[in-house]
Write a structure and sequence with these properties.
By secondary structure, this protein is of the alpha/beta class. Helix content is about 30%, strand content about 30%. The protein has five helices and 17 strands. Strands 2-1-3-6-7 form a five-stranded parallel β-sheet, with helices on both faces. A five-stranded antiparallel β-sheet has the order 12-11-10-14-13, with no helix packed on it. A three-stranded antiparallel β-sheet has the order 15-16-17, with no helix packed on it. Helix 2 (about 45-55) packs parallel to helix 3 (about 75-80). The longest helix is centred in the middle third of the chain and has 19 residues, at about 115-135. It is globular and about 55 Å long.
Length: about 240
Amino acid sequence: MYTGMKNDMILSILVCDDDKYFFEILRDYLCKNMYFNKSDFLYSGNKEDMLKTYRKVKPDLVFMDIEVGEDIGFDIIRELLKEGYSPQVVYITNYDYYVFDAFVGQPLGFVRKQSLETDLETVLREVNRVLEKKLKVIEITSGTTKYTLKLSEIIAFEIFVHDMTVYYYDDTELTVRYTLKKIENDFIKISRNTLINLNYIKDMSKDMIVMKNGRRFYISSRNVIEVKNRFKKFNGERHD
């Protein structure tokens, strides 16, 4: 059963900006939004701390200053992309001209500090849409244990009779006594027993999919055409 975006789920939001006072202003403004009023706000004032925090926490949303000391925010995000992460980014800056370059990592938006409230009003519409999708969960019961599975952290499900193995992006696994009859939210069936998350596909060959964390899954011959067409359509929609 899909529960949608849960009111009691705590978002983690990382703000990387060398001006901590601006972080406090942004945090206070975001807390007025229903999705963020229970958020865990994290602050990084430099590149090294930002990368360390992101790798450890994998926050739901990043507000990235384009100029962080001597470093450029675009380059910091590129490092995460090269490592296989897919950060949800909103770029922030004092300078209007950066808006023409703010496409690294397919950002959710661009916020000028001098027009914070106006720009955030526009950006948050897109942020809310993405986070609703990102925070979808399924709740299952295996034996006497209840699990809440956050779909955005899962790269694949494999089902064998009554056992289901859940593969997470961080290479951890969970095997439970459960039969998954239906899954939506960017998952597609690639074989009789396997469903994969389209968001985590790195490469696709004739009969194999390579995920962003390196794990590989075989595509059955009967599913190849459908999977390739769905992935092509998915990538097209994501770039629109």
